[in-house]
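Subject: complex prediction, re-run

Hi both,

The earlier run crashed halfway through, so I resubmitted it with identical inputs.
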Amino acid sequence: MKIAVCVKRVPDMDVRFRIAADNASVDEAGLKFDINDFDAWSVEAALKLKDANAGSEVTAISLGPDVVQETIRKALSMGADKGIQLKVDKVPFDGLAIARTLAEELKSGGYDLILFGKMSPDSANGVVGQMVAELLGLPCVSAISSLEIANGKGKAKRELEGAQEIVEFPLPAVLTVDEGLNQARLPSLKGIMAAKKKPLEVKPAQLPQSQLTVRKVELPPERKAGRIVGEGAAAVPELVKLLQTEAKVL
Amino acid sequence: MTDFYNLDSTLSEEERAVRDTVHSFVDEKVLPVIGDCYIEGRFPKELIPEMANLGMFGANLPEEYGCAGLNNVAYGLIMHELERGDSGVRSFASVQGALVMYPIFAFGSEEQKRHYLPKMAQGEIIGCFGLTEPDYGSNPSGMITRAVVQRDGSWVINGAKMWITNGSTAQVAIIWAKTGDDKSDKSIRGFVVPTDAPGFTAKDQHGKLSLRASDTSELVLQDVRVPADALLPKSGGIKSPLMCLTQARYGIAWGAMGAAQACYEEALAYAGNRVMFGKPIAGFQLQQQRLADMLTELVKGQLLALHLGRLKDAGTFSPQQVSLAKRNNVSAATDIAREARRLLGANGILAEYSSMRHMENLESVYTYEGTHDIHTLILGQAVTGISAFE
Amino acid sequence: MANVFAFAETRGGEVRKVGLEAVTAARMLADKLGGGEVHALVLGPRGVAAKASQIGEHGADVVIVVEHPDLANYSPEVATATAADRIKAGNYRAAIFSTSAQGRDLAPRIAARLGVSVVTDVLSFDVEADSIVVRHPMNIGKVIATIAITSQPAVIAMRPNVIAPAKNPKPGRVETAQPAMDPASSRVKVIETKQGGGGKLDLAEAPVVVAGGRGLKSAENFKLVEDLAAAFGNAAVGATRAVTDDGWRPHSDQIGQTGRLVSPELYVAVGISGAVQHLAGMRTSKTIVAVNKDKEAPIFKVADYGIVGDVFEVIPALTEAVREAKKHH
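This time it finished cleanly. Structure:
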């Protein structure tokens, strides 16, 4: 099987963010970056299929400046076979611009499966995979939480609100991966060393014009400080009173 | 993750990736079980396959023997992260890598290397290092374990070893024994002894108040016969086991700071949340001084280990340099752990927090692989030229 | 006059609350744009046409009804083709969806087909001369972006539960239409929609969410959370990642950075320590209550009201008190 996984480098979310001087972006100074969880689960899904289908090849693709090579190498260290960097100065917010650029690269790849994470936690839009599928005219199932592939066909589960969809689809297809599909393997130390020797192609890419402009980025209003109402079951009457009279939610 | 001096920026991408893998492994697999293991007094053996799969054993040995082929800074980072979990877990990896795989690599025949190293890297064969004896700790040269060559070339070994990590888990033991008639340490040689050989017994030592998540055993060899090819052919003299110790001590200099970092981070987080007299204790001058002192020693120790790693990679390091780092870092770590424990107050005596476990463990680390005092004398001799050992 | 398109999501032949939210939002946007029409599309099996009046009541001037026996389940390709064709033909200024599981799947497909971009998880919108400006949370909600959309139509998916469905009756003239493609020729086929356990109220729709964490100690103890939710009467049950990873609750119950983002009126955190990953999923709740035995737990930093105590004592007492309070309501 020939599988492509599109991966995105995002900052560690477990920090206090600061707004950059231009007020339209987050200050990157001091932030640590890595592949995002959803993309790591996509890579894992691709590798599981590779493990089960001898002769398969997994290609990790990332759009962005040279730093994204580290993210591609992360996928290579997990077990992907080759990498492609679509080189642009900056990754825009506009999902369509990203999708068009990726689709241009993917269309001639002859891939049986193209995998994306359901969303990346930074831009948090969750649209690129579906848009790429649409641009390539390929079947697409988004936010899958289980996957079976056999005989050129696939079956996946999608989590809905209080329900699940079971979906069937033919290959080739585009899938976006949700939490619960798998646990991403840690790169082995040998894998980390091997990644350096795997082919990583750098291709200059042209982003189309964005139709969206991020005007401003700001921190959300601080929640007003709350209080401990009391200890143990004895505090319950006071809490209920506050919920009724002060918060007015009861 | 604390990185006050931005040491990360001096690491290569591979070094950081190696650190990240072991860091995640410790967070996901070690930390959830280690408190209970420590109390129960058992080493989490169930982690061995994954540690092996990830390539943690003999990680700085060459790829041709099934190892990861990492540089020494990366090896140090592995030890740092493992000991951030627990000294017992790091001891397991130190023994397997630096004290079992390394001697086979350095002193073994090609057949021995090809037979043992890949399986040891995969965790299929676990080893232990038999140097220390009940009456010969700081003075291994005085060992009384003897190996006597037989007419057919095989050897018969008699003796006892003590304080042997992995002793009761291991399938092989690297046993150091005198092969000459006199008491000289020049005749010390290394043997790869299967632990199921008749006459070989390993017994766990009980009642430990430190390094409890680790197997520590006594080994007794009573007329243990091994074939000629059990001898590590290139071994000879006390220098051989000491070279192994230098490898292990290097890893320990890193590991100690991993334990220290765990304690410092735990103390810092706790101080930020624990409120007393209306404010977090992190706002009180005495606690800030504790934290500042801990951080300073942590950064110093990490810089020492990192530079030592670069020297080792350049091929220019000396055992005395390793002594300085092991001595400083373990001593500093014991202080950091103790101060963290104290900052945690009453909570600090609970197994739920890691500082006291690290504090207790580090007492063993202070004593093993060359006690603090022995390294003091190594340094003293190195700079004065005068031996003060006796 | 600028008209606005709305997608009225259905499931099992019923219009979902998020569908009415999309119509309400479209109505608001159309009014901001100068009072144009709202045209809402609804797809479903035979009988869904009867729901058109509901959609009209919430502000739709026209309800385009596409009924087909093969649309008992969601059909992404049919919905995409049908909606995209209609949006193109109708020259709408904007197209409004919900950021529901279905909306997340559908809105980007339609946008790509139309050659325009899309912003999901939108909190609010405003109109300027030549752009529609929306607010969208990024970096797990730690940062809010203001984004100007210049394309036409502006494709927007609203965050569930931020715009309440509002009755604003409009003609709701029904237009019957055919699916833009034969559902049988769809490559992607939803073969089943399985109702999940618990079913009742969805996390994104419920005004009250009661969530449980590791502090409950075992899957069986989740009964305490369920009882409290039942006492509120209008509450959904959620869980932390630790708990769903351990298999005590299904993944779809997980509230957090990689799970569901919820914004209820009232969020009750039971035995939850308040890890960053979890806070990311519920920090925009209007009122947060936390019950935890550890008074240093980070959850108390975001909670409006906290009780420090044993959940096994406090929650039953709270359940009883809420039942009483509801009785006298």
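Chain C touches chain B through two residues (CB under 8 Å).

- K.
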